[in-house]
Prior knowledge:
16 helices; single chain; 350 residues; mainly alpha
Amino acid sequence: MSTELRYVHPVEQTQWKVNAEMATVLRWEYEDGRDSLLKLYDKGKKNQWDAAERIDWSQDLDPQNPMLMPDEQISIYGSPMWEKMTRAERNRLRHHLQAADISQFLHGEQGALVCAAKVVQQVPDMDAKFYAATQVVDEARHVEAYSRLLHDKFELAYPIDPALQELLNQVISDSRWDVTYLGIQVLIEGLALAAFHNYREYAGNPLAAAVNAYVMQDEARHVAFGRLALRDVYPQFTQAERDEREEFVVEACYLMRDRFDNRQVWEALGLPADECIAWANERGDAADFHRQLFTRIVPVVKDIGLWGPRVRKAFADMGVMDLADVDSAEILANDDAIARSFDRESGLTP
């Protein structure tokens, strides 16, 4: 069955075109690469994997709770809306919430696929072109894996979230190569890592946990790519140019935070969307969830030099300023180690 027929909400069109003007840069100097990026490129080559072979797709998912997530992870758990639901309605809610998240992962990975190809075309440095080419393959593999998970196991799909679509539209249509880096490598992929982390850590189903763990292994390199490339660039920009990028960071962070309000799910299931969102925002652990979302973003934004007053104020308002000193390299190395542990448990490596 096609994806179009699986969507909970009908989509007007199954193709979205973004008009963008950009320069294509070819470089004739091949020996001036930065060691850090060339090492990352080497790692990207060695860590390629086949989604059809590394993942055991024979495993089934329980339709009542496909990824076997604890109910405490549901944002309206314990609310009046939750208490009124029957067992069958709660089963349907679990299915829809998880399918909605996987759908957004899938749409976001396609956006990253397009943007990685855009980086290859735009970026002026050959070492960055090398690494971005490996990322194109990574992102195609992620689209393959999440599409298979959604179609074969969930048999349900959600259209792209408006906040995610708006942010992707801004990143893809912008002609400046550094904004593509900033939007995808640092912001969207940094947030995605936090969302993947939730399923990797709490999913009781090994198939669901493995898919997210393996995707995170790749995404950790992508965020490192953005950090290494941009921290050499932004110190050379004028203050006005950095101010413009910082304004983009602030707007993008608020858009991404709102991406997780699940409005599409509440409306699809006939639940009072505004009440569900209000309850979720007032939960005692809502602040902890928002902090987790920005764990990988805040320290990288600081490291690349976009740390002016408006960015610091936005992060303070979100309650995530204390994340500025988190060792992002250590977190990303841990993502790689966990993926390798999944290989050992599955018998792929000794």
